Each structure stands twice: as C-alpha cells, then as structure tokens.
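User: Could you check the structure of this?
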Amino acid sequence: MSVRWPFRLRWVAVLVLVCLIVGPVRAQNPKKIYIVTDLEGASGVYKFAQTREPGPLNDLAKEYFMGDVAAVVLGLRDGGATEVLVLDGHGSQAVVPHLMEPGAKYVTGTPRPDVLWGLDDSFAGMVQLGAHAMMGTPDGVLCHTQSSKSENRYWYNGVESGELAQCAAIAGHFGVPTILVTGDEATCREAQKFFGPACVTVAVKRGIAREAAVLYPFAETRRALYEGAKRAMAAIPQCKPYRLSLPIQAKKQYLIFDGPGGQGRLQTKEGTIEDVLHLLDF
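Assistant: Sure, the predicted structure tokens are below.
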C-alpha cells in the first residue's frame, strides 16, 4: 500500500536527500585557495612613505590592507572555498594579527624557507591581492619589480615580466592557476595580458603617476573585492596555470649606486634558469 505524504513533507524529504548527497560531494572536492599579498596595491595606498618605513602612515596603510584581505576572504568562503591560506608577501610585512578575518590562516614573518611557503598542488587557485604593476608602467601606482630602489626589471624568454608573472609562474609549476588579481587599473591590465580574460581582476584605484592616484571609497572597493572573490571561485575551471618554458632565458637590469647620493649605474645580467622554483634567485 503506497502512502501519500503531505506536499510540505515531500519537499522536506527532497531537501534532506539533496543535503545527504551534496554534503559528501563537497567534502570530497575541497577548494583550497592560496592568497599571496602585497601592500602597494591595497585600497588607499599611493605613496612609498606608506609602505617602506614603520610609522603612522604605514600603520594606517596596513589597516587599509587588512580591510581588503577581509573582503576577499569572505568572498572566497561564500564562493565555496573550503580552506584559505594568506601569505604576507610584503617585504616589511603587513599582516596585523588583531585584524585577521576568521576563515583563513595567515603566514607572516621573515625569513621563510620558501618565497611562497606552503604552496603546493593541493590548492585550486591563487589570488594575488594588493598587487602592483611592473617597473616602468607609466600609470602604475608604486610600480616596481622586486626592488623599487634599484629599479629592477626582468625578462623571461624575451618577455618583460613583473611580480604578477613571477608569482604565477611558481604557482604554475604546481598546476595552480591565478584566479584573482587586485590592485590598481594598470595591475589589472597586466594580469589580463599574462593570465587571460578568465582571471578575475578588481581595481581599487587608478594611477595617474607613480605616486599619484584616483582613490575609490573603501565601501566601494571592499564590496567589489568581495564580489570579485566570489566570481573568482566560479571561474576556477576556466583559469589555466601560467607556465614558463624551461630552461628559462633570463635577463635582469638594475641600478648600482656608487655611494650615498651617488648616480646609479645600469647593470645587466643574463643567464639560464633551469628550475622555475629558483626564479627569484636570479
């Protein structure tokens, strides 16, 4: 004899069945996200005095940065991330412990055994948060590559590349795609060039010159970062790891200073890099 359940009870039974099926599937397909951060590309940051030396300007800049991090972590988690690791990639470090958003683990302090400590093939995607454009970008706020003081520039296999490509190439070694880049408009443009249209970009300001920018209100940038992070999670299947052909033919240009206040002399170094994990040792 069949039993006809009331309409509402039938729907409850269906929902319970869906939860029983989807729950285990999600558990079997974790989506770990690796965030590598920098300070120059954060909301409200537009001059080197905010990023280089300890003091009130730097303290405020780090608070601005932590607000951006919080928005991205929330967006990633709401977009389906099961685990988030945030690596403090700014040279003088920028993570403020009492402002850490729950739902992520934070790596800070130097020196570390590896530049991108903890990154491996278990991650579904990389986020480059607070990033900046490569050295020489006319409208790039605080643009530089590795060192703004010696004004380093790098070419890999004939293509000039900045920190975006450097981090993405190391992630690509593990098969991890860059899924989201945040910074100024020049940084977003550079990300699209190297990683293609599938990579989500969020501009939090527009550069006028190296230390001049049109700033966007925090309420707007944080909402855009949150929504961008959610979109990035959905974009993972379309994003491809960024890879460099090995061996890498590398060139580096940089300034050497002869003394305090001395004129910088341009130096060039060329060579071959056999292993992308040693990209930044060149």
